[in-house]
Every structure is written in C-alpha cells, then in structure tokens.
Amino acid sequence: MEHVPDHAVLSVVVGSRAYGLEVDGSDTDRRGVFVAPTRLFWRLDKPPTHVEGPLPEQFSWEVERFCGLALEANPTVLECLWSPVVEHVTPVGEELLALRDAFVSERACRTFVGYADAQFRRLDPERPRWKQAMHMIRLLLSGLHLVRHGEPLVRMDAHRDRLLAVRRGEVSWDEVDRWRRDLVAAFGGAGVLPAEPGRERVEEFLVRTRQAAL
C-alpha cells in the first residue's frame, strides 16, 4: 500500500484541536480510513491493517480493521466518527459516517472506563503527568456523554477551563481523583445505548465496499 492516500475515504482531525483543548504548539493529529483494493486480499501477502503518514501525526486504518475496532467500542476509533473537523471524505466515507450509530453499544461503558483506568494506573500522584491526567478526565467525560446521549462528547468547550487548569497543574491531585471517581460512578446510571452494536448493518456496508473496490 504505497499510495494509501489514493484509497482514503475519510480523514479527520482528532486530539486537542478537535477537543477544543489546544494550546500554543499543539500538534495536529489526524486519523483516517482507507479501503484497500479487494484484489490485494487474494494474495498471500495481505494489505496492511493500518499505516502511518504521509503527514506527521497521521494514522489510518484499513476499513475492515476500523469497523472491527469500532464494534468493540474502541474510544479512539469511535471519536473519529464524531470528529467536528473532517478534512476529506468520499461517498464511502459519508456512508461510514452515516452508519456510526450502528457501532455504539453498552460495551462503551467498559471500554471508556477501562481506558481511563489504565491511564490512571500509569500516573504517579507524587509526580503527576498533568497532560495525561487531563486526557484521562476528558475520556471519561466523552464516554459518559456517549452512554447518556448516544454519541461521544468530542468538543470540550463546557469543560475547557477546568481541563486546561488540570493540564497546567493548577488542580490538586485529590481534586482530580475525586472528579475521576465521580465520573466513573456516574457510568452506573441509566443510559440509552443498545446492548449490542448493529453488526449486520456494518457487515453489509463492508461487503458493499469490498465489491465496489474490485
């Protein structure tokens, strides 16, 4: 796949610039989806499931890998589907975006809390990495919004000042931990997500996409 951009169907901006949490010097993180030509799967050497580049801080998934991760409620992948900054989209990409409700399910309760917990365990209360602490809280805010409203919260405008104060180390560790625990506890409330994602709808999309890429 030397020419992945030729097969890109979706490219979005993620990270701080999508969340509204950018500061001077923030990178522009891009994530995307590409569709490998179907005939390449007939070979012993299969197309890559993901690639980096060609731009700095850019990463793209092959469409089947992307769909698989999204069905498992991978937070990073799901947020791509709701990014407010879409830089490139084809008709196939538009169909993928229109399908995004099929990927969400109660699995998100486990994945968002699990990812945040993994970040928390890597933090040292004596020497916190405040940027990582900020993104841990942001992830929980995003996931809780998904559970309650059916879509992740990407733009953090309502929480921007408090989150950036965490990043600057202006919030005590005890307050950050209390905020984290309150958010985790809130995941136990009633939500709107279906028990399982719409796997059949996603598979139908994938089959159509493979047929069109022959």
From TrEMBL:
Name under which the protein is recorded: Nucleotidyltransferase domain-containing protein
Pfam assignment, any one: RlaP
Species this chain originates from: Streptosporangium longisporum
Lineage: Bacteria, Bacillati, Actinomycetota, Actinomycetes, Streptosporangiales
PANTHER family attached to this UniProt entry: NUCLEOTIDYLTRANSFERASE
